[in-house]
Amino acid sequence: MSAPRPPVSGVIDAHQHVWRLDTPGHQWPDADLPVIHRDFAIADLRAASAGIDLAATVLVQSQPTDADTDWLCALAADEPLVGAVVGWADLLAEDAAARIATLAGRRKLRGLRPMLQAIPQDDWLLQPALDPAIRAMIAHGLRFDALVQPRHLVPLHAFATRWPDLPIVIDHAAKPGAAAGGLDPWRERIAALAGLDNVWCKMSGLRTEQAAGEPAAALAPYVTHLVACFGERLMWGSDWPVLLVSGDDYADWFATARALAGLDAAGERRLFAASARRFYGISD
Question: Tell me, what CATH number does 153's domain have?
Fold first, then answer.
């Protein structure tokens, strides 16, 4: 009988949410998702992650509003478990550069995330009107969280190539078609993006992309490909509490990701801590 694997220490969760339904401008989740249609706070995260040595979390926006981002920054300021915040800003606004400068002054704000999956145009990122905002992000050392689907990967490659000084991380591995079991063209396009030094990726959100009742083991080809392509630029995220929609809890997904990645101790330290710490500039 093989010895039990030692626990992973100092875990950094690279992708996690909180929300309050009474926050001004709250849009999602709504009553159509009863499992997560309630308030979620950092105290709930602590309870959900019990048994895992969670050192820090990256708190990611869930609403496309300034009010939500301001609330997250205020919450994070006095919360030691939050190592970084990824907020939202209207990148097409006339005052986008000024807003970005203001947000960059918030102590834990590390990045911005336009909600690309909700935008019909696949190549929205390539419009010249975004240039002032992107230049401001680069000038202030911010990162770009790419909430994309496979349809966005070709334009995202062009975007990342055009802005090599902008650190980009692909959320949820671009939400591959796991429910249908399809790997292509996602497989080739994600590999092409991994060939760009400024592009990183999150191993998160995969369970909720599967069909209801599908076993986690069916994600093995996706995880194997991500590990092979991104290596030290791959980071683990829970996508909690959205994860709960899949029927898994926090510990379930942590154990699944660990088993499917199949890494040695050094590789696990990168996947579950060091990569997120490096990308988001989270101090020890």
Answer: 3.20.20.140
Structure confidence at residue 2 (pLDDT): 54
Residue 209 domain-assigned? yes
Cβ–Cβ under 8 Å, residues 282 and 84:
yes
Is residue 263, in this structure, part of any structural domain at all?
yes
Instruction: Kindly state the average pLDDT of the residues 111-137.
Output: 97
Number of H helices, E strands in the chain: 10, 8
Q: Average the pLDDT over each of 3-12, 89-98, 109-118 and give the range with the smallest value.
A: 3-12
Structure tokens belonging to residue 132: 């002032």
Total residues belonging to the chain: 284
The model carries a pTM of 0.97
* Residue 1 within a domain: no
Decide if 70 is inside a domain: yes
**pLDDT score of 24:** 81
